[in-house]
Structure formats: structure tokens, C-alpha cells
Amino acid sequence: KPRALRLPAGVGARLRSAMAEFTGELGQAIAAALESDEYRSRIEAIQKEMKQQEESRLQALGNDAGSQGIVLVRTPQGFAFAPVKDGEPLASEAFEALPDADKQRFTAAIEQLSERLTRLTHELPRLRRTMQSRIREATREAMALAAEHLIDELREQFTALPAVQAFLDEVQRDVVESGSQLRESAHESSDEEDGTALSGSVTLRRYEVNLLVGHDAGGHAPVVFADNPSHPNLVGRVDHLARMGTLLTNFTLIQPGALHRANGGCLLLDAAKVVMQPYAWEALKRTLRTGTVAIESLPQALGW
């Protein structure tokens, strides 16, 4: 959900420029952190440990099977047990030729070993989830190191603004939590260079700032004349882009209306033009009554 910040005049443009620079540097910092020898060594060590745990448990099961004259074999369908003779698994015909006592002994032993194998196969996914959790934690730590010094530099620029400090805290937390997805977006494709990443996608552009209304520091109160006071021109709109037959949007496509630009100053309207525009008069009255400018399209507002 887009979040609106109210900042002193002139600060919004500074914040927008600073966050645009931040996203560019963050992509390089993420790539450097996740391609470093230290990070790779840590991930490889976690994966190696997991592989050793799997192999040691399977080897222990195989050793127990071997002590009973049974071998654990790997098949395209998974693992299976088979009795052995002279170091080779017995074929079904050779097994049937064994004395009944031997066949019963092998059958009972294989059933017991199969139960242990079943329990082991149920434990392995848990071990893999543990490994993935440790990898995610390692990635979070790498992302935190990559973003920390960049965020600290931003904090120094906006020390006196609690709203910006809170926003930067959220950015830092999100960078850490979105590490794996941001890693893929660190090398963004050229078709996203216009700042219109797909809705819902996690890219570095999520940390940019859409300057809805910006005033110069020390300037006068705004005086706005709305020559075409239509509903979207008064209350603003959310633009969409057509991509592969689908309309997509994001927070950078939120556009202000005349009521936003004139806030704190004067808005001049031609009354005749206002009442001639569909739903503009109703939107203007609702805004003045509630003191809130609600940006919504007419189809959305009317349930079309």
C-alpha cells in the first residue's frame, strides 16, 4: 500500500533524488555481497554439511544392512534393499531357491530396514528445510551488511525528519527480508528501465520515491487554475500500462490532481466547467467535507 509522507518544502525532491541514487548503488552492493568469497564459502559449507548428514545416515543404514547380508541399492525409483551372496545382490530366482529359514530371515530383516528407511526419508526434508533456513539467514546477514552503510548515509542527510527516518527503517528491514528476490532484480532487464516494473513484483524500484507534489523551499503558497476541472484532474488518478494484454500499475504511476497541487494555497475553478464535468462537482464537495483527497478512478468509484 503506498505510503504518503508530508515533508517540508524542498525536501521531497531531495528525498526522491537520494532514493534514486540509493537504488542504483544498492543493486551493485547486493551483487558484490552475494558474489563475495565469504558468502559463497558460507553457503557451500552449509550445503556440504547437509550432504554429509544425509550420506552419513544412509551409510549407517547401509552398514547395518550389510551386517545382516543385505545391501542398500539406489534405483531410479529410490532406495531398495536386496539380499546379497558373494557380494552381489541376489536375483529373484536365486532368492526363491534359498532355504525357507533364510528367506524368512531376509524378509524380516528387509521389513525392519525398510521401516528405518521410511523414517529416514521423512527426516531428510526436515533437514533440507533447516538448511534452507540457514541459507536464508546467511543471505539476510549479507543483505544487511550491503545496505547498512548506504542507509546510514541517507539517515545523516535527513536527521531532523522523523517521518523519513521511519521510512528508511522500513526500507532497511525490507531489503533484508526480500534478499533473494532483490538478488534477481539487481540486474534488471532493459524493459523495466522506464520505472514500470510489474505490479506485485519485488524489484529495487520499490524503494524509489514518487514525488506527488513538490514545492520550492521559501516559495509562495501555491495558486492553481484548473482550466479543465474533470474528475481525475481534480482528485488525481492512477495510470496503467498495457503489457501483453494486461493493465498493470504501481505506486510510481499515481498522479496528483489540482486539489493536491493547490493544497495550502488557492485553487481557481470555472464553476460552469465544474458542473459540466461528470461527477467532478460531487468529488469536489466530498473532498471539501472530509478534508481528504481520495485518488480513485471513476469505474472504481462507481463499481463499473
Topology at a glance:
Blueprint: H1 11-34, H2 37-66, E1 70-75, E2 78-85, E3 88-89, H3 92-96, H4 100-157, H5 162-177, H6 179-185, E4 223-226, H7 231-235, E5 237-238, E6 241-243, E7 246-248, E8 254-255, H8 258-261, E9 266-269, H9 271-276, H10 280-290, H11 298-302
Helix pairs in contact: 1-4, 1-6, 2-4, 4-5
Supply the key terms.
single chain, 304 residues, mainly alpha, 3-stranded antiparallel beta sheet, two-stranded parallel sheet, 11 helices, 9 strands, elongated
Structure description:
Helix content is about 55%, strand content about 10%. It has 11 helices and 9 strands. Strands 1-2-3 form a 3-stranded antiparallel beta sheet. Strand 6 (about 240-245) and strand 7 (about 245-250) form a beta hairpin. About 15% of the residues are buried.
Please outline what is shown here.
The chain has 304 residues and is mainly alpha-helical. Helices cover 56% and strands 11% of the residues.
Number of helical stretches of at least 4 residues: 11
Query: Which structural class is indicated by helix and strand composition?
Result: mainly alpha
Q: Can you give the mean pLDDT?
A: 85
The helicity comes to 55-70%
* H/E element order: HHEEEHHHHEHEEEEHEHHH
Query: Termini, distance in Å?
Result: 22 Å
Order the strands across the largest sheet as they lie in space: 1-2-3
Largest sheet: 3 strands, antiparallel
> Over the alpha carbons, how many angstroms does the gyration radius reach?
32 Å
**What would you call the shape?**
elongated
